[in-house]
Every structure is written in C-alpha cells, then in structure tokens.
Please model this.
Amino acid sequence: MEDKLREECGVFGVWGHPEAARLTYLGLYSLQHRGQESVGIVTSDGERLHSVREMGHVSEVLTEPVLTRLVGPNAIGHVRYSTAGDVSVNEAQPFSIKCHRGEISVCHNGNLPFADELRHELEAEGAIFSSTSDTEVVLHKLARSRKPTLYEAVVETFKEIEGAYSILILTPDALIAVRDARGFRPMCLGQLDGAYVVASETCAFDLIGATYLRDIQPGEVVSIDQSGLRTEHPLPEREPAFCIFEHVYFSRPDSIIYGRSVNKSRHKMGKQLAREHPVEADLVVPVPDSGVSAAIGFSSQSGINFRFGLVRNHYVGRTFIEPKQSIRYFGVKVKLNPVRDLIEGRRVVLVDDSLVRGTTSKKIVEMIRQAGAKEVHLRISCPPTVSSCYYGVDTPTSEELIAANHSVDEIRQFIGADSLGYLSHEGLLTACGADEGLKFCTACYTGKYPLAIPARPARAKKVAGGK
Model:
C-alpha cells in the first residue's frame, strides 16, 4: 500500500543509567516508525562492548533474554530503514569494530552522498568492508586517524566528510553525538535521573520519563564520559538546512523537532491549505494516521465537519497472505476501510500529507467513491514532490514521481478526484516556522540542493545513508 517517502532511521543513546539497555529498548520502540527493517543495541560496561543486531521490529528482536545479555550503564541503539545499502543483517546497526583505539560502535541517521568515493579510496588502500552501508566509511576514517584521542579523531573525520548525519559513537568509556553542520537530520538531548539521553525525536524521552533539554545544534559535537558532558562546535559553519519533511510526515506529531511542535506545524499546514484551496463540502476526512493533524487544521479553518471516515487496521504485519482469487486493491483495503454511513451521499474533502507516485491515492479515492461519496476533493498538505532526496530519505527517481512529469490537473484525472489542491511552498515554510527564523531544506519540492550531490548519483534509495 505504502506510496510515501520512507522514513530514514532512528537513533537513541544513554549514558550513566543502570537500566541503559531497557531504556534504549523503550526509546527505539518509540522510534519504530523511523525504521522497521532491523534493530540493534550496543551497551558498554566500562570495559567492553556488548552487541545485538537483528532483522525485525524492536519487540521481536529485543526480548528479555537478549536485554539481559546487554549489560552496562551506557548504550546506543538504532532502527533502520534501508535508504542505502542492501537489506540484510550485515547492514543492521550499530556497527562495531576493534582497532588500535579499542572497541568503537557507531550508528547513523542520514546520508553521506560522497561515501562511494571515500569507500573506493579506502578499498584501494587495502580497507575491507563488511557491509554496503556508508556508515562503515566513518569507522574506517576513525580507525585510520592519527589524532591522539578518539574525540580529536571524530572532529577530524567529520571535518572531512560532507553529508547529512546525526551520529552516535560508543566506546567502553565515552558516548559521542555528532550532528552535521547543516542540521539536516534531527537529534536532541535529554536527562533522566542524572543520566544523559540522546534521541532522534523527543517522543522517545516522553516514554521513559526523561526531560528534554535542547536540540543538539548543527555542527555540534557532544562528548559524555565519567567527567560529565563536554560540547563544542568544531565543524565548519554552514547555512542551516533542516529537513522540512520531518514536520510534514516523518516525525511523530507528539515530538518536538527543531525546537517546534510537529503537531502544531501540521495543524497550521491544514489551515493554510484550506485558505489556499477552499471547497464546498460536507466532511473533512483524514488519510490516517499522518493526515490527521492537517485535516483537523483544514476543518478548523474551513468550518467543514471533521470525521474519521477511513478506519485504519493497526494490526497488519509487515506481510500478509493475499487470497488466490485477486481482490481489487486488496493491499489498500487490508489497511484502510471507509465508514459508509459517514461518507454515503456526502461531498468529502480527503486530506493526506503527501502524494508521491499517486498509485495509493488513486485507490483511496476510488474506495471513497465506492462507499457512496457524491464528490471527492483531495487536499495535500505539502507542495508537489518533484525531486529525489540524497540526504537520508528513500525517494523514488524523478521518473517515478508523478508531480515531476504531470500537471496538477493531469494528476487529478489520474487519481479520479473532483479537485486536487497542494499546499504552496510558501505556505509550508510559514506553517513550519520559517517566519520564526528556521531554515529548511526543501529540495524534494524545488530541486535546489543545499549540499552538492555527486555528478552521477545512484538511485536515491541506494545512495542514502545506512540507515
């Protein structure tokens, strides 16, 4: 069913808590929406690292016997969706090595667009890689650095590596968090019972009862050890370019991302969408779950009643057995079902957060019509997606993006809606806080990339980072 830009990955770390492994389990559980292919945790007991990496969901992999083996008061964890590399346990993170610096473990959310070039250089010098992930390049650079301390090696490495990254590094005696100088991907800092916690989203702090302190800033390196927390901004200064799609779709609405409520941004997107594309209708219906906040905003601004006219089955696994006799649009129907008594005979405004290939939207519009809707008006709470992402998001090629090749009216005809309206670029920026000083990357809507990409990049899914 999914016709969305896919989540990148999620990272979580703990320093100085006796329940580090279990807190990391809970943190990753909160971040499961950011990656569903694999999960991993590495803990430190002050002398050595203990690791588990497996394919599957957090609750499937991190069982009680597994968590019992992950001893120590310090940990990092990762949930992965493969925006780069193969799909196998070899690609699962965190990655760990032993070198002259001792044991080092790394996990990463983002993308290193020039990782292939670095990898070829390292391989030519004799380096051996165990995965296809760009994250492994970081480990090789750290191991080869001649700097006397790991912290100095980290700074040297990331001064040389351009890209989008929020990275956690764990050794037996330190936890280091690094965010790239443009701040593409989010990462925040919190505290719990005197311990420090780091996560991709604040919703992970809420589950464990941690206090959100602040975002880790673009270009900031945070090092935590027995002496406490040390922070510096040693990376070259760059113009901020926060991924705006975190607010459109990726992050949970209960998170604070870039210092701003995601739910607030989505609600404003919906209100602005109603101003830009008004329509006479009887119901505003969200495409659950990610379209809900924007649909509430649309309803509030337009005065049209909000109703949950589509019910989502939350208990569908990653795979399901289809009937031998084909059922039309089975993949969508097994996850979404219209509420006929709400929809029948009414004019429906269907609100979704994005429209990528258009295939799923077409099926949902047809389902709404089959439930008896008189009219179906589709409203999308972001601009048309016309370009691939090379900063850690799984994006179809431009040939597959329907808005890159068709006009709005051609898309409307394809999906079968009575009208189609996208939120404007300016409306999206305002809703997400650009007027308050936040600066975003909107390359997927404009084709203007804040960081140069390789001259001949592979498909975005295959160049984006380990994640």
Notes: The domain at 260-436 is CATH 3.40.50.2020 (Rossmann fold). The chain has two domains: 9-241, 260-436.
